[in-house]
Amino acid sequence: xxxxxxxxxxxxxxxxxxxxxxxxxxxxxxxxxxxxxxxxxxxxxxxxxxxxxxxxxxxxxxxxxxxxxxxxxxxxxxxxxxxxxxxxxxxxxxxxxxxxxxxxxxxxxxxxxxxxxxxxxxxxxxxxxxxxxxxxxxxxxxxxxxxxxxxxxxxxxxxxxxxxxxxxxxxxxxxxxxxxxxxxxxxxxxxxxxxxxxxxxxxxxxxxxxxxxxxxxxxxxxxxxxxxxxxxxxxxxxxxxxxxxxxxxxxxxxxxxxxxxxxxxxxxxxxxxxxxxxxxxxxxxxxxxxxxxxxxxxxxxxxxxxxxxxxxxxxxxxxxxxxxxxxxxxxxxxxxxxxxxxxxxxxxxxxxxxxxxxxxxxxxxxxxxxxxxxxxxxxxxxxxxxxxxxxxxxxxxxxxxxxx
Length: 404
Hints:
With 404 residues, the protein is α/β, with parallel strands linked by helices. It is built from 18 helices and 13 strands. Strand 3, helix 4 (94-108) and strand 4 (117-121) form a beta-alpha-beta unit.
């Protein structure tokens, strides 16, 4: 069993906020498994490496003998988390939340140890609260305290509307901590206010206040903005190994130190050593990035070396990947039973519209059967397209299949 000092070193590595580290030390000294909470509102279907950062920290707690309590916020997701928002988030329907929740759990279990995992839905207790319970909960805070929150303060000053329901969100999330009696709550830096509310509520009901630990927001593949599906700079944990490898190889050199710290689950000493080797020149940035890509792919697929070989085959030798997704062509609205390649790109999801498909072709970014395409409007029959391969850029491929 790791010493208290060693546990503190591992568990706080990479964290941005720890409130308070002396409380964490005291809890660890009690020599019992801690209950470590992470709340997840299922508002999308896929988990990317940015969100996996906090899941990986939760796994580190598990590896040291502690219990992970994953709260699926199926109730709070229907309200919408106002954290970091400049406007009210749209509410989700229960059916959509349930579908996202099932996907989240399946993906989270790729990271977490199921033997030390407790999964709860906060509708278990929040869904049973009556108006009298809600009123008693709202009496535990003030409007002034809520307005201290950065995003609420900005919106109030700019005249943007803030609904009373949004004020409820931190209280409901905080009440989750009371119900499960969490010792530690994890989250991104944007969750600091919400998690501190939980700490306050626990103190009010006489519980030991949870330690609040936040993790930095991972930058995306662009090296500038936080990783986000909407920005297109994400690396999904369920993406094909060679795609994941290739995306990691595309990150700027300046982002590698953060990626080594937040995505590898390495001991902090190992992270420090690799970063020092890159700075000293003992390891080249390309070699370090390959090591990073192999390590991350191994975590999620167990095939880092195979992904590297596939990457080299496709991106260095320009060979086709071994497993190309197929797309069945749709000629229902085709003129003269023929489709232009711009239309095919749109159908196959390689372009957002026919216009973008034409632009990609005109810019020389499209290859058909290995040859560069320049005629965006040239049209082809099902027989001519069947079994052929379209490529956009260096990473996106599709094999065309004619309809039956």
